[in-house]
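Figure S7 source data.
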Amino acid sequence: MATIARLTDAERDDLLAQFPRWTLRADGAAIEAEFKFADFNAAFGFMTRVALYADKADHHPEWFNVYATLRITLTTHDAGGLSARDAAMAVFIESIV
Ligand code: H2B
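Tokens for the predicted H2B complex:
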């Protein structure tokens, strides 16, 4: 499989500047965000929409949900860091949140 290109530092910084909710993980290989919903129904409804995107895009979030709180980590395992796939997923997530 061809290696997926990692974002340049400038592309990564542009992404983070566009979406203040997202922060760079300490190792620089992922971006993370936390979401608070009204209740579990709202959180899981949102997760379902992201899951459908993930299935279609063949790009999957790492996430952790407790009731109405959701933490999402975006990274591209096949790139060993951030790629355009993470940027596209962040754009999608921010468009539906
Ligand atoms: N999701 C994420 N986040 N990173 C990947 O590298 C990745 C993925 N690779 N989903 C995909 C699936 C790959 O394993 C399949 C075979 O296309």
